[in-house]
Each structure stands twice: as structure tokens, then as C-alpha cells.
Amino acid sequence: MQLCKLNDGPGRSRVGLVQSGQVQLLLNDPARNLFTLSDLLFCPDPIEVVEQLIDDRMTSFPVNPRAFLAPIDRQDVWAAGVTYQRSKEAREQESQTAASHYDRIYSAKRPELFFKANSERVVGPGGIVRVRRDSGWTVPEPELAVYVAPDLRIVGFGVGNDMSARDIEGENPLYLPQAKVYDQSCSLGPVVTLPDGFPPRDQIVIDMTIERGQAIAFHGSTQLSKMVRTLEGLVEWLGRENTFPHGAVLLTGTGVVPPDEFSLQSGDLITIEITGIGRLVNRVA
Ligand code: DO4
Ligand code: MG
């Protein structure tokens, strides 16, 4: 099952059920306090609840991901780093002084976890992502996004982009928050796939294409099976000494890094596709 978030007038949103290329709007349920995407995702049995809330008065309409909002409510977005060999190599290359930190974190028991964004910094499908004005070397990072309930259950999967200023991160690891956290530095979408509809993890491919004008400036892909950690392990570390009353979205690290001479330019079109979820498309401001 897949859910999306749609605009329903000023300051209001509705949840939609996405199936067979159509969107069916869902009703709010004040009696059970079910209004938002998170309310549904965090239910003990979201599939049963969604089926009860299908708005039969409304006909379904064709999917247009550009009309979807970022599938996030009040969750914090966190991110894991150096969870794939390719990311470890890229970090070692960009960082003259701190290469050994990345080597050690790749195999350490404790993963690298960092705060990425509050929901205001997240853009949705068709939204505009940004390169910092003080960065000359920024890339998108295509990552599986894991939706985490307040009780730390994994309740959904999405496509995420952890935009990263490699020059700032490479200059000094203490600059990581500035390399990672800025306005429009994160995108999520187009839908959330519930665990029942997510294919077996050894079949998941994460693919990214960057178009510049009419040409393909970069294309690369990886498989989730190449990740050195488990999703459950990352979530367990995230939840140590942290509570998430509104849930969390965890980006699980990148295994696709463009070559060192590549940097995003204004107008580039980034398409990230993950098996079982869909395609997230964003343009660079
Ligand atoms: O250590 C820096 C961040 C790495 C990262 O974001 C990733 O591996 O995806
Ligand atoms: Mg990343």
C-alpha cells in the first residue's frame, strides 16, 4: 500500500491512497483522531484503517506526483552516513585531514547519525532544492528514507535526497551541520510505501540521474543489499537516548556518489528512483 499527501486548501492537507496509477482521497476521522499521514502510519493496523477511510463520495484521479506535498508532518529528518563503501571512499577523497575518521566509522559499532532537517527545510516532488551560495561543490545523495513511529517501529519507506556540500564537509568534519543543513537541503517523496508493499530488501535498487539541459550529466545506481548496516540497527541507534513524539524520518546513507569533478549547477534536474516506492524529481534552484 502507498500513501501520498495532497494540498486541500490553505494550510490544509489530505492523505491519498495511491494504487494502480490513481489517487483516492481518504477521510479524516475526528472520533479516532486520524487526520494526518503520520496518524495513519503510526496506527497499529494502517491498512485496515485506510480501507475504512476511503472517501467514496470522491472519484479517484490519476497520479500526478507534482501535485503531491512532501510526505512529512512534524517528524525530524535524521540521516546516517558512511553506510556504503562508495560513501566511505568519497569522504576519504574529499577530506585531506580526516580520512581516517571515515574509515573507522564505516566499520565501527556505532553508526554516524546526524540531524538533517525539520519539515520546513524539506521539499516535495517537483520542488526546488538548493546549493548553498558558499559552496562550489555540492551533490545530491539518493537515499532510502525510513519512516519511524514514536515507538521506533519502521512503518514506511520513501525516497530521500540528502543534498550535501562536499567542499564544506571536506574542509573540516566539524562543518558537517553546515554542509548538510540549510534551506531546501532535503527532499522527500513522492509517496510512502507501507512495509506490506515494500519488495524484499535484496531486490531494492537506488538509482539517480542528473540531467543538464538535454544531456545526462550523471547516472549511477546501487543496491540496498550493499549497505553495511541493517535498517533496524540504524533505527535502534537513533532511538538510544532520544524520543520522537512525532516520529522520525531516517535517511539511510548514500551508495551513489558522482565523480569528484562533478558539482550540481543551477537548473539541473535530479531524478531518484527506488524499487517499490517510485521516482522523486527535483530541480536545482
Ligand atoms: O559523513 C558524512 C556524511 C555522509 C553521508 O551523508 C552519507 O554517507 O550518505
Ligand atoms: Mg547522505
List the helices and strands and how they pair.
Layout: E1 2-7, E2 13-19, E3 22-25, H1 37-41, H2 46-53, E4 61-62, E5 68-69, E6 76-81, H3 85-94, H4 99-107, E7 112-117, E8 122-123, E9 128-129, E10 138-139, E11 142-148, E12 154-162, E13 164-165, H5 166-171, H6 176-180, E14 186-193, E15 205-212, E16 215-223, H7 231-238, E17 248-251, E18 269-274, E19 278-284
Parallel strand pairs: 6-17, 8-14, 9-19
Antiparallel strand pairs: 1-2, 1-5, 1-14, 2-3, 3-4, 6-7, 10-13, 11-12, 11-17, 12-14, 15-16, 15-18, 18-19
Magnesium ion binds at residues 79, 81, 141, 143, 162, 253-254.
> Segments where pLDDT lies below 50 for 5+ residues?
none
Query: How confident is the prediction overall: mean pLDDT?
Result: 96
Structural class: alpha+beta
Strand content: 25-35%
**Small-molecule components bound:** 2,5-dioxopentanoic acid, magnesium ion
Query: Any idea what the CATH architecture of the largest domain is?
Result: Alpha-Beta Complex
Q: What is the chain-wise order of helices and strands?
A: EEEHHEEEHHEEEEEEEHHEEEHEEE
CATH superfamily caption of the largest domain:
Fumarylacetoacetase-like, C-terminal domain
Number of domains: 2
Question: What are the key terms here?
Answer:
single chain, 5-stranded mixed beta sheet, binds magnesium ion, 2 domains, 18% helix, alpha+beta, 12-stranded mixed beta sheet, 285 residues
